[in-house]
Amino acid sequence: MNPPLATEQRDRLHHLLTQMAGRLDGAVDFWTTVCLSPALPGRRAFLTANVEGLRGLVAETRGMLSASAPLADPLAVLAARCEDLGNAFLTLGRFESLAPDELRRTTTAIAEVYRDLRSALLEVGRAAGVPLSYWEGQRAQREEYYRGILERLYGLCVGLTDSEKVTDTAARTR
Fold it and tell me: Number of H helices and number of E strands within the chain?
């Protein structure tokens, strides 16, 4: 059995988990907006910087809890799925050039990775005795909001791609 975390460590872990939860929700809410805005300069740099920020939080959390055997699996999931999230968003950032099947795989991957990261964050908090309060309170409303974005993401991309083709064709025929 691992010794309980000191108050300072518990506070720091709560802060890290809260930051990761906020960034994870921000990925669904805001990174998708950036990805779906082709005219926005620096999309790739924005995504890379945000993924790096999330990686840093995961690394600090792993370093703080590395000696805890019950946390090994959820910490490994956090690290691996953080990489998957970054790769999926970098792919989504070029949604206009993706084949429909690759776009479907990418949007599905984002939804799956979001769920896995969310579960791993909650598990780390539970196992460490530091409940993650970020998702409490408006939990059902928040879950529905983010689930809705993830469920509509493929259709949004296809709609934007189709409207760009229509706009591009109209511009060429003038």
Answer: 6, 0
